[in-house]
Write a structure and sequence with these properties.
Number of domains: 3
GO molecular function, one term: ligase activity, forming carbon-nitrogen bonds
Oligomer: single chain
Keywords: ATP-binding, Metal-binding, Nucleotide-binding
CATH topology of the largest domain: Rossmann fold
GO cellular component, one term: cytoplasm
Shape: globular
Distance between the termini: 50 Å
Protein name: ATP-grasp domain-containing protein
Organism: Haloferax sulfurifontis
Length: 430
C-alpha cells in the first residue's frame, strides 16, 4: 500500500484487547512498515462481481483471533477465511480450525506419529462414561475448545461426566504427572524455529500450570530437551501453523504433546525468558508479503514486549474501559455436571472467590485428592460475569447459604470496576 513499494501493510486481526496484538502491531511499525489493527470497529470486506476489496486494505494478515474466548468462534474464523481468499494469512484459518479444537489436534498429531496422551471423545454421555473407566483415577476432563485452563477439571470421584459442558463438547484425557511439582513445558515456535521455551509450574493447591491462573515460570530456552523441541517443531508443521505455543509434558515414556495453541500468549514467556515472539511474527508476516526486514533488528525487538495501545486501537482500548459490576450480579456458573444461574455477591474484601458446598455438588465439582497442600478445599468452576467467561478457583465455604451461594473475590474482580450503587441486572427498577 502507499507509494513506497518496499512498505508492507500488515493487518493484525483480533477482536479482543490483548497485549500480544498490540505488541505485534508495534513491532511491525518498529520494523519500518505499516500496521493496521483489524478490530470489530475496523473490518470491512466488499465482495462483488469485480472481486474482493478490503477496507482498510492490507497486504498480509496476522490472525490473532482468540476463538476459545469468543461466543461465536466459527463466525469469527470465517472472517479470517474472507481475508485468506485474497491475502496471505498467518495462521491460515484452515489450520486454526484444527488447532483450536484440542481433540482434533490430538487426532491429527497421533495420525502423524507424534506422541500424545491417551484421550477419548464421545457425543453421548453413556459412551463417554463407559470409556472413562479405562483411564483410571484421576482423569483429566476438559472441553474441546478452551483457554487459560478454562473448562479443565481433574476428576477423581465416580460422579458421571457429560459429553458436553455448557454447550461445548468435552472429552477425557490420561492424567500424566511425572514430576514432584505439577509442571509442563511451553515451547514457542515461529517459522519452524524455537524462539523461546519455559517450564510452567502449577500454583499452590492446583494442578494446572497456566500462567493466567497464577502459575510460576522458569526459562528453559538454553537447556531445552532435544526430544521436546523436536516434538514441538513436528507438531507445528503437522498442523500447518506459522507460529504456535506448544505445550508438552514429560511422561515415563518421553515427551507428550498436550496442546498446540495457535494464539498463545506472550507474557508468561517474556517473564520467564526475556523473549517475545511478537517481532518474529511481525517479521515473518512482512516477508510473506514480499517485504524485507532487518534480522538483527528483529532479534533486538524480540527482547521487548511493547504493549502500548497503537493509535488505531478500538475505542474501548483507547478509553481504557473495563467491565462494570454492581454489589451483586446474576451469573452463570458451570461445572462438570452442568450450569446454573445464581445470585453472586461481589466481595472486594475477599482475596478468593467462595462457593457453597451444595452448589459445588450440584455442578459436579469436588476437591481433587491429587492436590493436597493443607489449604481449605477448593474447586474449579467457570463463571460468566458481565459477558465474560473465565475459570475460577473457589474455596468451599460451609457458612454460605442458598440465597447467595457464590461470593466473587479479588482473584476475579481485578479485571472489573465495582460500582456499589448499581443494582442487580434484570431486577425491577435496575
Amino acid at each position: 500500500m502507499g507509494g513506497d513499494a518496499q512498505t508492507v501493510t500488515v493487518g493484525i486481526l483480533g477482536f479482543h484487547d490483548s497485549r500480544e496484538t498490540k505488541a505485534i502491531s508495534n513491532a511491525v511499525t518498529a520494523l519500518g512498515h505499516e500496521a493496521v489493527w483489524l478490530h470489530e470497529e475496523a473490518v470491512g470486506i466488499d465482495v462483488s462481481r469485480a472481486g474482493v476489496a478490503l477496507d482498510p486494505d492490507v497486504d498480509v494478515v496476522v490472525n490473532r483471533l482468540l476463538l476459545s474466548k469468543s461466543t461465536s468462534p466459527l463466525e469469527d474464523l470465517s472472517i479470517a477465511s474472507c481475508y485468506a481468499a485474497v491475502r496471505p494469512v498467518l495462521n491460515d484459518p484452515r489450520s486454526v480450525l484444527v488447532a483450536v479444537h484440542k481433540h482434533a489436534t490430538s487426532s491429527r498429531l497421533a495420525a502423524a506419529g507424534i506422541p500424545v496422551p491417551h484421550t477419548y471423545m464421545a457425543t453421548a454421555d453413556a459412551k463417554l462414561n463407559a470409556a472413562r473407566d479405562g483411564f483410571g483415577t484421576p482423569v483429566v476432563y476438559k472441553t474441546a475448545i478452551g483457554t487459560n485452563g478454562g473448562g479443565t477439571w481433574l476428576v477423581d470421584h465416580d460422579r458421571a461426566v457429560s459429553a458436553t459442558v455448557d454447550g461445548r463438547r468435552a472429552f477425557v484425557q490420561q492424567y500424566v504427572d511425572a514430576s514432584e511439582r505439577h509442571r509442563d513445558l511451553r515451547i514457542y515456535v515461529v517459522d519452524d524455529e524455537v524462539v523461546g521455551a519455559m517450564y510452567r509450574y502449577a500454583p499452590a493447591g492446583d494442578w494446572r500450570t497456566n500462567v493466567a491462573l497464577g502459575g510460576d515460570v522458569e526459562d528453559a530456552t538454553e537447556d531445552l530437551p532435544q526430544g521436546a523441541a523436536g516434538a514441538a517443531l513436528r507438531a507445528t508443521r503437522t498442523l500447518g501453523l506459522d507460529y504456535a505455543g506448544v505445550d508438552l509434558i514429560e511422561s515415563d515414556g518421553g515427551w507428550l504433546v498436550l496442546e498446540v495453541n495457535p494464539t498463545a500468549g506472550f507474557r508468561g514467556l517474556f517473564r520467564a525468558t526475556g523473549r517475545s515472539p511478537a517481532a518474529a511474527i511481525a517479521g515473518l508476516a512482512i516477508e510473506r508479503a514480499g517485504g524485507r526486514v532487518d534480522s538483527a533488528l528483529v532479534e533486538r525487538l524480540g527482547r521487548d514486549l511493547d504493549g502500548t495501545p497503537p493509535a488505531d486501537a478500538p475505542s474501548r482500548v483507547r478509553d481504557e474501559r473495563v467491565p462494570v459490576v454492581g454489589h451483586a450480579e446474576r451469573v452463570t456458573v458451570t461445572g462438570i455436571s452442568g450450569s446454573k444461574e445464581v445470585l453472586a455477591r461481589i466481595d472486594t474484601a475477599a482475596s478468593m472467590t467462595r462457593i457453597a458446598p451444595d452448589l459445588a455438588a450440584d455442578l459436579g465439582t469436588e476437591p481433587s485428592a491429587a492436590v493436597e497442600d493443607g489449604a481449605p478445599p477448593r474447586v474449579d468452576i467457570v463463571v460468566e460475569l458481565a459477558g465474560e467467561r473465565r475459570t475460577v478457583t473457589a474455596v468451599l465455604d460451609e457458612e454460605m447459604g442458598p440465597e447467595t451461594p457464590l461470593r466473587i473475590g479479588r482473584n476475579v474482580l481485578r479485571d472489573y470496576y465495582v460500582d456499589v450503587r448499581r443494582g442487580v441486572r434484570g431486577d425491577a427498577g435496575d
